Amino acid sequence: MEVNRVLHMNGGVGEASYASNSSLQRAVITMVKPILEETILDLVSDEAFLASKVLCIADLGCSSGPNSLSVISHIVDTITTTCHKQHRQPPEFQVLLNDLPGNDFNTVFKSLPSFYDKLKRVVPRAYYEQFKHDFYSFLHSRSEEVIKGGRAVLTLTGRRTDDPSCDENCAPWKMITLALKDIAEEGHIEEAQIDSFNFPYYAPSAAEVQDIILLQGSFSLTRLEGFEIGWDSNMTTGNTSFDNLRRARYVSKYVRAVSEPMLSSHFGALVMDALFQRHIERVAEHYNKEEPTFNSLVITLIRK
Ligand SMILES: C[S@@+](CC[C@H](N)C(=O)[O-])C[C@H]1O[C@@H](n2cnc3c(N)ncnc32)[C@H](O)[C@@H]1O
Q: Which UniProt keywords apply (predicted)?
């Protein structure tokens, strides 16, 4: 008997499959989680980790059940959240799923789309955790500067919906992503450079802001309102006859003024003109479809 050939778990997802009968292994994984997390926290403060852009994770016996990818997404989630808390860019992740040749890799591949979906959900959560941490420390710092009875008026870009990855919230940055993809297709930049670029922007909902103010506890919240403002609202006041290309140029100029230093340090100054030329075109296309707005939040606080 050739062990290499016959040593594998039952494939598929049926009644006798390993995938449907691996809850004991899941229990072991749950028990080991604190040790895994301790190891990850130790790793992320290690000089070798800090000096690397790519982190490679290998499962040496992944089989074809749900346990493998759930451990991988837990590792990715923990590292991403920890990096955001420490104001650091998370690494690019490479995942190696190994097993013996008889393993049912087809079932492993079939489970990848739901793994990617889960990862997509992890990203907004990591951005929210970062915002929560930052806004909490902002309030804490102001509480040390403002005397009892002092007032604060804040404005932030916010969002109306519960879902932080909804189009309304992401559209302004989606135009940049589309323009980046355009210039990647033209050969100005590599596709992989886009994957490793993260924009430090989060638009909270009113409920998220309220929760953090209550949690921090130094201020009474006296007003929390949202209002809409068109992407080109200042330009079109009293004049709605501008064509979409002209409006797009106006929008693209202020997006460039805000984002160019970050984009340029990642993609290089030489590609900025090409990028923003494509950006103008993408914003103009968006105007052909809808009348986009930003949601702004206004908050008034009294120091307790
Ligand atoms: C009990 S399963 C665990 C699967 C999964 N990691 C989990 O926790 O549910 C052990 C896996 O290790 C694999 N395995 C055993 N010896 C191996 C070897 N020398 N190289 C790669 N995989 C191996 C088996 O084929 C099997 O899929």
A: Magnesium, Metal-binding
